[in-house]
């Protein structure tokens, strides 16, 4: 978990990096509850509700929640990182520049957000029962406009659902007052309340002004309940009449006159005005939010400056991951850093084969020389045992066969390298053996496995080696008895 990129009433959102096996890495957004709220069971339950409800909504216009992590005594929500800007920041930039936002673009942004809200309203649980989710906090702050041109509704922290774990007391106000419907202020929120909030967002996006104003929350609430809403064309005359009609219907205090669903409102908007394309929305975000995007990109580049993990060995890979882990300067950083370590099973060692006629000839010479040394040792061992009477007959032949079998098995098939052991020499097709450092290792002694393998492994190979045929005995000569090996 790294720097905070946004703060809200319940918590802050930080940049984070999700790491997995085989060098997998991904930048994510991590939502962390404010410390003063982390000890409140109601806030914790609401926090968990957000993750549970958002995970049930599958729609491109809803920011997905990827995971819930328990670290250092607090809960962290891991969400998709959207490279973009909140609609509130984009509208603020237009106000500061005294430039009205483009009508086609903001209309398309709100219409896409409405499709995401409709998906939330229609979501169901695992058994197929309607969840009856109501966002209750639809505002420009929770509409994320990506640099890719996609719009995503975020922050279901105060959402109301039929099976919500954290129940809301009747009459309790949730959400931002300036965007709440009159019935929501009275504690009777429904999906049409989200439609009303979307109408407020559309009014402000078209005009570049605030609809309900006041010096404090009570004054704003009073304005919502009593103020007559001014048509947006009185603030900005170029707004099309058909689009203004959609705005005023969405802001109707009479529920029977208001759009019944978010999808119905989105459809009416698409019929009233030509919507901007995804490419146009993308260009608008990158133009208006260029400074914020550049600052965010610099933060992401700093996090990713550690680079990809090099798969040389288990020790090297783990050392690089530990060295590039997030700083331990925040709650949850230690646990997330430990969870990010690459498992040893992900380490892969690949030694490229060497080629060349000269190297191939050298390799064959080494192999034939080793075989000659092993054969000579077997002859001497057999002859000495025969002369001393220590290894008569078949016993001597069995010992020689074991020696030859062990040596040939060791030279033909090197044992599997255990994870974490140094890279050892392996004969390559058409070339000599190479190691991880490029130096050729010493040739194993006869009867000894390379890489310091134990005698138990050698016994296992001797048991698996095919039995050698019995030695052929030479016919007796008139010159006297001759050793068997002749």
From TrEMBL:
Residues 1-273 form the Protein kinase domain. Residues 398-418, 425-448 have a biased composition (Low complexity). The keyword Kinase applies. The chain crosses the membrane at residues 364-383. CDD domains: STKc_PknB_like. PANTHER family: MITOGEN-ACTIVATED PROTEIN KINASE KINASE KINASE 20-RELATED (PTHR43289), SERINE_THREONINE-PROTEIN KINASE NEKL-3 (PTHR43289:SF6). This is Putative serine/threonine protein kinase. It comes from Chondromyces apiculatus DSM 436.
């Amino acid at each position: 978990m790294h720097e905070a990129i946004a703060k809200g009433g319940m918590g802050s959102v930080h940049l984070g990096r999700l790491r997995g096996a085989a060098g997998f890495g991904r930048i994510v957004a991590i939502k962390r509850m404010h410390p003063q709220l982390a000890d409140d069971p109601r806030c914790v339950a609401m926090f968990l509700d957000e993750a549970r409800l958002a995970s049930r909504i599958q729609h491109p216009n809803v920011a997905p929640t990827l995971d819930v992590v328990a670290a250092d005594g607090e809960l962290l929500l891991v969400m998709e990182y959207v490279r973009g800007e909140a609609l509130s920041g984009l509208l603020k930039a237009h106000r500061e520049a005294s430039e009205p936002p483009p009508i086609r673009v903001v209309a398309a942004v709100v219409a896409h957000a409405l499709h995401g809200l409709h998906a939330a309203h229609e979501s169901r649980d695992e058994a197929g029962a309607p969840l009856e989710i109501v966002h209750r906090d639809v505002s420009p702050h929770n509409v994320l406009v990506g640099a890719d041109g996609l719009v995503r509704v975020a922050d279901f922290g105060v959402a109301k659902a039929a099976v919500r774990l954290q129940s809301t007391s009747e009459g309790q106000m949730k959400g931002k007052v300036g965007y709440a419907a009159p019935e929501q202020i009275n504690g009777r929120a429904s999906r049409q309340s989200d439609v009303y909030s979307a109408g407020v967002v559309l009014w402000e996006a078209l005009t570049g002004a605030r609809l309900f104003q006041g010096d404090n929350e009570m004054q704003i609430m009073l304005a919502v309940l009593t103020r007559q809403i001014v048509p947006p064309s009185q603030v900005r005359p170029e707004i099309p009449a058909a689009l203004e009609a959609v705005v005023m219907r969405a802001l109707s205090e009479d529920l029977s006159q208001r759009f019944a669903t978010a999808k119905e409102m989105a459809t009416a908007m698409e019929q009233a005005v030509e919507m901007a394309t995804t490419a146009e929305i993308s260009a608008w975000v990158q133009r208006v939010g260029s400074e914020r995007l550049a600052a965010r990109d610099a933060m992401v580049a700093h996090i990713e400056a550690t680079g990809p993990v090099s798969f040389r060995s288990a020790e090297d890979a783990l050392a690089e991951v530990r060295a590039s882990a997030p700083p331990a300067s925040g709650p949850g950083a230690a646990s997330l850093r430990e969870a990010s370590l690459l498992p040893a099973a992900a380490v892969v060692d690949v030694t490229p084969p060497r080629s060349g006629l000269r190297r191939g000839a050298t390799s064959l010479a080494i192999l034939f020389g080793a075989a000659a040394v092993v054969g000579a040792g077997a002859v001497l061992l057999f002859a000495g045992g025969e002369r001393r009477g220590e290894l008569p007959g078949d016993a001597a032949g069995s010992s020689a066969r074991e020696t030859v079998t062990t040596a040939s098995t060791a030279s033909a098939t090197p044992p599997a390298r255990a994870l974490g052991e140094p890279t050892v020499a392996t004969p390559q097709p058409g070339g000599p053996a190479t190691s991880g450092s490029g130096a050729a290792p010493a040739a194993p002694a006869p009867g000894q496995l390379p890489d310091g393998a134990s005698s138990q492994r050698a016994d296992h190979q001797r048991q698996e080696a095919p039995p050698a045929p019995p030695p052929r005995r030479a016919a007796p000569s008139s010159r006297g008895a001759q050793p068997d090996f002749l």
